[in-house]
Amino acid sequence: MTADEKPAAPLLKVDDLKVHFAAARRRPFAAAATVHAVDGISFEVARGRTLGIVGESGSGKTTAALAILRLVPITAGTIDLDGVRISALGGEALRQMRRRVQFVFQDPFSSLNPRQRAGAIVREPLDLMGIGSPAEREREVAALFRAVGLRPEQQALFPHQFSGGQRQRIGIARAIASRPDLVVCDEPVSALDVAIQAQILNLLTRLQQTLGLTYVFISHDLGVVRHMCDEIAVLYLGRIVERAARASFFRRPLHPYSAALLSAIPGAGLGRMRLEGDPPSPINLPPGCRFAGRCPFAIDACRQSDPPLRAVADGHLVACHRVDDEGTPPHHAGV
Amino acid sequence: MSAAPLLQIEHLNVGFDTAMGAIMVVRDLDLVLEEGETLCIVGESGSGKSMTALAIMGLVPEPLRVVGGGSIKLSGEELVGASHRRLRQIRGKRISMVFQEPMSSLNPVFSVGEQIAETLRLHEGLGRRDARAAAIEMLQAVGIPAPERRVDDYPHQMSGGMRQRVMIAMALACRPAILIADEPTTALDVTVQAQIMDLLKDVQRRFGTAILLITHDIGIVAEAADRVIVLYAGRRVEEGSAEEVLRRPAHPYTAALVACAPQQLLLGGERRILPEIPGIVPSLLRMPPGCAFAPRCARATAECHAKAPPLLELSAGRASACWLATELGR
Q1: Residue B329 clears pLDDT 70, i.e. is over it
Q2: Is the ipTM beyond the 0.85 threshold?
Q3: Quick check: is A104 in a domain?
Q4: A313 in a domain, yes or no?
Q5: Residue B252: what pLDDT?
Q6: Are A227 and B274 a contacting pair at CB < 8 A?
Q7: pLDDT surpasses 50 at B189
Q8: Which residue of A has its CA nearest to B254?
Q9: Closest approach of chain B CAs to the CA of A69, in angstroms?
C-alpha cells in the first residue's frame, strides 16, 4: 500500500525544528531554565498522505503542530510548505499562508465559540480570508455542512445544542472551509466516545479522498494511528525516536519506547513490557538517550551518548543504541 | 458470615422530575458484586455508569435521587435511606472510590500523607504518629518510591500517575471490601495507564478487594474484568462473563462497541472505512418507546421500535435485552 512511486517534492518538509521555551522560575533569582519542547525534529509529508505523530504528554507533539501552524515562535530549523519557506514568513504573507494550513482541535467543547452560531463559525475563515462573494460564502457553508454530515439548517444552532461528535464535525467544516492543503489534526477523536470516534475517523478519511487533503495526525492512540496514517513518527521528549512507514512500524516497532507503547494498550495482548515511572520533564534532560531512565534495555552507552536517528532498514529510522544495523531490536514486539 | 452477597443492587432507579417529565439516568438496575471479583460496568457517556457508582456511595448529586423503591445492600445492610452518619462510616471504610481525575480529587493544601492519614484517623482511630506510619506503608504498597520522603509531598509535586497511586493508597488504607474505580486511567498516559491497571490487579490479589470498575474501554474490560455489565441509556443491555460477552456479544450494541474498539484498529485487517454506530445516544428526555438502541441498530425490526425488550436470561449469569438475543448469543 505504501510502496508506490516516490513523489517529486513533499508538501510539507520540516527540518531540524526546535521550539524552546523559558520555563517559569521556581524561585526568584533562580537560573532561567529552558523547556526543550521540540528539540530538532525532521520529517516530510507527501501530498495526499497522512503522517502520524505519536507520543505521550510532554513529548512535544502539540508544540510541533503549533509550530507548523506558526502559532508558537520557532527557535531554530525550517518548515517548507509546497516549496515555500513558511517558517520565515511574516505579516500578510503569513496570513495568506494560513489559508493553506488548518487545524482540528482535540476538544470540540472548548474550541468553538459558545456565542457564535454554527454557521458563523464555519463561515468565519471565508470572511477573514475574503474567499468568494457573500452569496457564494452562504452556499459554501451549506455545502460544508453537508460535506461533514450535518444538515444545512443546523447552521442556526449554537455549539451547546450539538453533541460532541457533531461539534467535532463543525470544527472539521471550519478547518476545510478555506480549502487548505494541509490539515493538522491534534487528537481529533480522543475526547469522543468510541462509537463516535469511528464516525469522525471515517469522515476524515472520506474528506481526504474527495479533497486530496494532507494530514498531520497527532494521537496517543496507536490503533487510530495505524488506521489513519501512512507514516508514523514517535516522539519522546521533543525528539523523534522512530520513524517508519505504517506496515514496517507495526510489523516490528524497533525503539523500546514504541514497543512499550504498543504493549501498554489494554486488551490487545501485545506483550507485557512495562515502563517504570513517568516521562521525565523536558527541562532537565538526561545527558545520554532521553529514554534511558525508563528503558529496560539501557546499557552504559545509553546513559552517556545520545543516539542519533539513523536508517537501519529501508526507510525505517530509529534512534537507539540497542538496535543493531540489521534492524534487530532488543525486544520482541509487533502486531 | 451471612450468605448475603457482598453488594446487591435491586431495581435501582436514579432520576429527577422536570417540567418536561421525569428524567431517568439509571433504570431498573440489578447488580451483584461478590467478594474478590472484578465487575466492569461499560458504557458511553450518559449511559448511567458513573451515577450507579455514586448511588452506591450515597453521593448522588442534587437534584437527582434514588427513586422508586430500589435497594442497595452491603452484606445485607440496606444503604438506600441509611443515615448520613451511617453512610459516612461506610464510605472509605467498607466501600472506597477512586475517581478519574486524580488532581481534582486530592486536596491541594494538604500533603498526600495527611490525606491518607485522615482516613485512618477517622475510621480506625489511629493516633497521628501511627496514622503517618500507616500512610507510608500504603504509599509503599502502591509502588511509590521513597515513600518516607514522598509522604510529605503535596499533590502538585507529583505526576498524574503518582497522584492516582495516592488515590488508590487512600482508598485502600482501611482495607475496604469494595473499591469502586470510575475510569481510573482515562486521564493518564498509555504507559502509565498500564502501570495503574497492573497495580489495581496487584492490590486486589493482596487485599482481596472486590473491584467495581467503570470504564468505556472494551480493552480494559478484556484485561481486567471477571464479569461485565453493558449499560446503554441508563439500562442494562447485556451482562455475563467478560470473556463470553466480548467473544459472543448477545446484544447488537455490545457487538458494535467491540467492533469499534481501538484495539480492533490495531489487530484487525486494514480497511478504509470503519464500522461505526450511526447517530447518537438518545436524549433522556425523548427516549424512544421501544428499545433505546433501535434507532441506531442495523438489525432493528418493527417490534424493536414498538416495544422495549426485557432483559432475557440466556444462561446462568448471562443476559441480554434484545429481541434477537437468543439468535445472537448462540
Answers
A1: no
A2: no
A3: no
A4: yes
A5: 94
A6: yes
A7: yes
A8: A195
A9: 25
Rounded to whole angstroms, the Cα distance separating A187 from A220 reads 7
Distance CA B161, CA A146 (A): 42
pLDDT tens-digit map of B258-273: 988 878 888 777 767 8
Q: Which of A198, A227, A267 shows the shortest C-beta gap to B223?
A: A267
Let me know: does B207 contact B172? Beta carbons within 8 Å.
yes
> DSSP assignment, residue B295?
G
Answering whether pTM is above 0.90, one says no
For A297-334, what is the HEC assignment?
CCCHHHHHCCCCCEEEECCEEECCCCCCCCCCCCCCCC
Number of domains in chain A: 1
pLDDT in the model for residue A1: 43
Q: Answer yes or no: is A299 within a domain.
A: yes
Inter-chain touch A266–B280, beta carbons under 8 Å? no
d(CA B192, CA A335) in angstroms, rounded, equals 21
Q: Taking a C-beta distance cutoff of 8 angstroms, is the pair B250, B312 a contact? A: no
DSSP reduced 3-state for B304: helix
Q: Tell whether A180 is covered by a domain.
A: no
Instruction: Give yes or no for B216 touching A (CB within 8 A).
Output: yes
Domain extent, residue A319, equals: 256-335
Cβ-Cβ contacts under 8 Å between A and B: the total is 121
Chain A interface with B: residues with Cβ < 8 Å: 1, 56-57, 163-166, 193-199, 201-202, 205-206, 220-224, 226-227, 250, 260-268, 270, 274-276, 278-279, 335
Torsion B272-A155-A110-A80 (CA) sign? positive
Confidence bin at B19 (pLDDT 50/70/90): confident
